[in-house]
Specification:
The complex is a heterodimer of chains A (308) and B (200). With 308 residues, chain A is of the alpha/beta class. Chain A is built from 10 helices and 10 strands. At the A-B interface, helix 4, helix 6 and helix 7 of A face helix 4, helix 5 and helix 6 of B.
Chain lengths: 308, 200
């Protein structure tokens, strides 16, 4: 199990794939751990990418600072990992909290990237997200990691995914409960106490950017992704049909395929962001379709977009 | 070595020798906290926050009482010197960089409590097959759950405005306390065949 050193902290990472190949770096969500990317590792390795994953500070097998975790330190840890990858093309993707860290990296060190894929992501805390975050933190404090998982599972995953697992949810939750500690998750959540919106800085991201958002994402709804689409010049927004916030867990094969295709398009010079809005296919390999012209992609019902 | 307690008996219970050592360690740690909270708790409260001291004292005492009754104890001659080394570790340690002795004492107690409540996760040692109706299994789960709640008082204090000028000192003292407590915990687990994280 290799580790990077950031000051007195150790960051556990995993790196596979041929040296010199284009690399994907995948950044965990707040309650996750790097093994959750295993299916992506296999899928992307099969497409001849290198794949790097790691546990953020406070997660899994990385060190868990006892009282404070700074988001600056998370970005620094990510930078250390990317520095390990040499000079080949780097594609960076992260989900939710990990997407935020990826955005910050892209703002500060974007020249090192060939492409960026924020997923279920946000650049600012809307009133809803801020209140939900506080409520989830209170849930963690009062009920522990298990209760936080109980809140997040139905919020972030579909009935189709949950239904066959209803009588074995304890086993679904167990690994996350084992490797993540209450105080460390709390420190990660409290790293938002002095959070400043990234929105004014998003225009500094010049790399090709594919923004992925689940159709039914309740925690970080469309409007938060719209901010990214509007502010990042070379971006496009791809809506994942019938998906919730944690679509990387639920639709791993489709998401890995989208990641690979994005990188392949960028490397082949085919990528055009144009701040377009797309609808992803239901299955891997399917065609992306443009969001119907004239309709408002921020609405859940077919409402024609207001003319400017 | 395994990362979990066991092998379990046919009824899904933890081996008594493992129960004895785990319980002895937890009683030593939480007992020390109970004593130190008791000495800190004034006979008459004169500030609202002191009600938390009262709660902490009784919760720690409850953990000790629970373990005394829920554990299947067996004689263990090695416990004598082990308990002596644990008890020595819980003694108040000077916090370098904080001149006010009352504040330093409070930081000592809060860092020790944080390290015990956050760093020791006894329920995470339970294998999936452990009998949920067994009192020792239930005790470990309850202790871990209560520790998560008790921890909040330490977090609030250690991150409070009063200690903001001493942030680096407090963080260093807390990290040191965590390292010390985890070392003892790992050694204990190693003595009963448990391969705890961070033992490499």
């Amino acid at each position: 199990m290799p580790f990077l050193s950031h000051g007195s902290y150790r960051i556990r990472y995993e790196l596979d794939g041929p040296t010199g190949a284009p690399a994907y770096v995948l950044v965990n969500g707040l309650t996750q751990y790097s093994e959750l990317w295993s299916a992506y590792r296999e899928a992307l390795l099969a497409r001849r990418f290198r794949v790097a994953t790691f546990d953020l500070l406070g997660q899994g097998a990385s060190d868990k600072p006892t009282l404070y975790i700074s988001q600056d330190d998370q970005v620094a840890a990510l930078r250390l990992l990317i520095d390990e990858l040499g000079d080949g093309p780097i594609f960076l993707s992260g989900i939710s909290f990990g997407g935020l860290i990826a955005l910050r990296y892209a703002i500060e060190h974007g020249k090192r990237l060939s492409g960026l894929v924020p997923m279920s992501c946000f650049a600012e805390l809307s009133p809803q997200l801020s209140l939900l975050g506080n409520a989830l933190r209170t849930g963690l404090i009062l009920g522990g990691t298990g209760y936080l998982q109980d809140l997040l599972l139905p919020m972030n995953l579909s009935d189709q995914w949950l239904k066959p697992l209803l009588d074995k949810l304890d086993s679904v939750k167990r690994q996350g409960w084992l490797v993540n500690d209450v105080y460390a998750l709390q420190n990660l959540m409290e790293s938002f106490l002095d959070f400043r919106p990234l929105t004014p800085r998003l225009s500094a991201i010049s790399v090709p950017t594919m923004i992925l958002n689940g159709e039914f994402d309740f925690l970080t709804p469309r409007a938060l992704h719209e901010t990214l689409r509007v502010e990042i010049p070379n971006s496009s927004l791809v809506i994942i049909p019938k998906a919730y916030h944690a679509f990387t867990l639920e639709k791993g094969a489709l998401t890995a395929d989208l990641l690979a295709r994005f990188a392949e398009d960028v490397l082949a010079g085919r990528w055009q962001g144009n701040q377009a809005v797309w609808v992803a296919p239901d299955e891997p390999g399917g065609e992306l379709t443009p969001f119907p012209a004239g309709y408002d992609h921020l609405r859940a019902i077919p409402v024609r977009r207001a003319r400017p | 070595m395994s990362g979990f307690l066991g092998p379990l008996d046919s009824d899904g219970r933890i081996p008594p020798r493992q129960q004895t050592r785990i319980a002895a360690f937890l009683i030593s740690a939480h007992g020390a906290l109970a004593r130190q909270f008791a000495f800190t708790l004034p006979a008459r409260l004169d500030a609202a926050w002191q009600s938390e001291l009262n709660a902490q004292f009784y919760r720690e005492s409850e953990i000790v009482s629970l373990l005394l009754r829920a554990t299947s104890w067996v004689p263990d001659l090695s416990l004598g010197y082990m308990v002596a080394s644990w008890e020595a570790a819980w003694l108040p340690a000077p916090v370098e960089g904080i001149a006010d002795p009352r504040l330093a004492k409070a930081v000592h107690l809060a860092t020790l409590a944080h390290a015990v409540h956050a760093g020791i996760r006894p329920a995470a040692l339970l294998p999936v097959e452990a009998n949920t109706q067994d009192p020792f299994v239930m005790a470990l789960r309850r202790i871990e759950f209560e520790s998560g709640r008790l921890l909040q008082a330490q977090i609030l204090f250690l991150k409070s405005a009063d200690l903001a000028p001493h942030r680096d000192v407090v963080s260093a003292a807390l990290a040191q306390r965590h390292a010390g407590v985890r070392k003892l915990w790992r050694e204990l687990l190693g003595s009963i065949g448990i391969d705890a994280p961070g033992m490499e």
